[in-house]
Automatic annotation (TrEMBL), chains A, B:
Transmembrane segments: none annotated. This is FMN-dependent oxidoreductase (Nitrilotriacetate monooxygenase family). The keyword Oxidoreductase applies. It comes from Nocardia tenerifensis. Residues 429-449 are annotated as: Disordered.
Amino acid sequence: MSTPRQLSLNAFIYPSGHHEAAWRHPDSQPGRIYDVDYYQEIGRTAEAAKLDAVFFADGPALRTNVKHNAGSGLEPITLLTAIATATTHLGLIATASTTYYEPYNLARLFSTLDHISRGRAGWNIVTTGTDLAAANFGLDRHPDHAERYARAREFVDAVVALWDSWEDDAILLDLASGVYADPDKIHPIDFVGEHLSVRGPFNAPRTPQGYPVLVQAGASNEGRSFAGKYAEAIFTAHQRLEDAQRFYADIKAQARGFGRDPEHVKILPGISPFIGDTEAAAKRLEREFNELTVPEYGLSQLENIVGKSLHHLPLDEAVPVDLFDDAGDVTDNGRSRLQVVAGIVQRERPTVRGLLHRLAGARGHRVFAGTPEQVADTIEEWFRSGAADGFNVMPPYYPGGLQVFADTVVPILQQRGLFRTEYTGTTLRDHLGLPRPAGRTAPEPALTS
Amino acid sequence: MSTPRQLSLNAFIYPSGHHEAAWRHPDSQPGRIYDVDYYQEIGRTAEAAKLDAVFFADGPALRTNVKHNAGSGLEPITLLTAIATATTHLGLIATASTTYYEPYNLARLFSTLDHISRGRAGWNIVTTGTDLAAANFGLDRHPDHAERYARAREFVDAVVALWDSWEDDAILLDLASGVYADPDKIHPIDFVGEHLSVRGPFNAPRTPQGYPVLVQAGASNEGRSFAGKYAEAIFTAHQRLEDAQRFYADIKAQARGFGRDPEHVKILPGISPFIGDTEAAAKRLEREFNELTVPEYGLSQLENIVGKSLHHLPLDEAVPVDLFDDAGDVTDNGRSRLQVVAGIVQRERPTVRGLLHRLAGARGHRVFAGTPEQVADTIEEWFRSGAADGFNVMPPYYPGGLQVFADTVVPILQQRGLFRTEYTGTTLRDHLGLPRPAGRTAPEPALTS
């Protein structure tokens, strides 16, 4: 009997939790967010629950509103290396920018993480679209969306070519003759693009996975096309089943259009679960967190999304429905977030404070408050109805929010046969059901006539 | 009673050992050089011996002559993070290039290593001078020496300013008011140079050490001046006591000239010890390694140093004394290595094979074969005669070569009162006797009249 289709579940780590006020709640541990033990413990919790991977977002700039925002700013590849040494099976996915890294450097960091973790690395490819980041790299403004994606395509092509520049059997380790590696099986890549050029070859052999899993998160048209071509897993933000289904169908079709097996593109929406013994208890917990928010912080975050000043709006009156008609200077990669927010306002007609609470949970990702059964039900519904291959779980608070999910929701999904009870492989590709890329082989010798 | 002046001792890690043929010797383990456990074991050995630090060289290009060269190419910051989690006191020094990194990215990698290791990171600052590296970053030729050092100065200034951009008490963690950090204590750096510009602020607080220890290795005139201004530890390559003394005096004077305490610049020559129960046994061991060298490999390495073809030279005849008079296309940072080699030829008049054996040990660093007492004697002599504050120990083979040094030489140095028997601090700065940099404080408030 073959195994039925299985969910993929990641834990998306944000230091104190994804709820913006989590660090103020007694169940979080904000004093430990620069302590490596804290992240290793979270990794062990995720591995004990047999999750596919842990995941970190990233950007090379100080977060906005640091006054009220307890992010850590730690560099995720380094942090995941520390988690790698505390675990044996857990996948390790780091975000890194194609706009602000050099391909040779980034290829090395991820290759080394894959070697160190024995095949558990994944790269969440982002193009980073903020002027704050640009100013840290000598630019006045960040390059526009189209230019960033053009560079991103070249960047990924070059990095993959570097990772594949050694044939799998290039190392000979022939003690007798003194030949360590066969130079004929190590190839320059001679990549020449419009935005970057890399000669190669890479300076290390292929990794246990061939190369790290390619992950992507862009929801713009360019982002989708990029994802259809390159991504092996996609992190998405959808509030509603029907939107998620539409996205799912689109990406799978794009992958097919690129000649890829749609099974090899896993679509993983975010979900931020408040879990309680009863639905009322879960909603009470969510309210408790929302009441800890600082409206000034939420308003300025919302201003970043809509691109205009909102501080004049009375907190307890309804959000004007025309608020988004003349959205100001919206960054192009903010447009999909703007659509999410506009959708909430149109459907739910919240007060300003209500909208801030809706967004406080997980920055536009879906927040769900319910019992373990209800959380499992909605995961199963999306999984069975063509909306998701799994989920990027975004606990509202850490470490407890992940522990509760692991202790109460995971066992239900396991009982339903939807999620593994033991790892069946050792690499992130194994967990996701992705093949190890074949890599290059020597060209056929020319026929002699 | 105050502690007498203490040696600093690092273990410089090269995968199978510093001798170029180490990977062919039965005492090395070349099949494990992509296995993280191997490096964690080396780290634990170094820590058990109470060494100051382990250290990795690095460059963003495939090593030359990979056919006979068993380097690993693994990225050292990531690798040291894995060693950090297996140790508690050991310092962790990684080489990284100012020419081929962006300052914001590199500042983050080292800052995170310092946070994760609780204050044990060091950065060996190099400018990387090979065309092979340049071609991996879209350049036809590497920038020249002066231009690389000009960028390096700006780079280090910008990185240190980033590391210091948060005042030490910027994080308030005020749960009651919802204020995580005081934005008035987090400063943009607004660095505008000729080669790079970085606005800042950094996206993470100062590290346990304030910032990582700054290490440097350049021996050119520009390298020395750079070292005198910035370096807190310097790795050098000297064959003879008198050359090392001259260098030592020069650097200490340069540091004084920059208004620095010369005690805060530690000078650490490389030494690659073959250790035996008798001097004859040690020399036999060295010969055993030398006999495993592949002359074709050694010749091509030497050709890289002298910048011209040498394959016509008969191996068992004397090296022509005029060989270096018309050195060819020598890269400018190769000039100091060229001087080391020319000095050996003038003093020792070796055969070509003999010269290749002399260089096979540690790429121009000093190779010393003797008993544990003799190794301790030469270390003590250099330490007491103004030539060294300690040593960068380069075991000819790993892991055994480090183990033998730890088991036989370290106890002698400890008995002589020259080296710690227990760590007295927890950070790399503690081990090296370097102060934690003060960091910036808020400007005095303007006086109201």
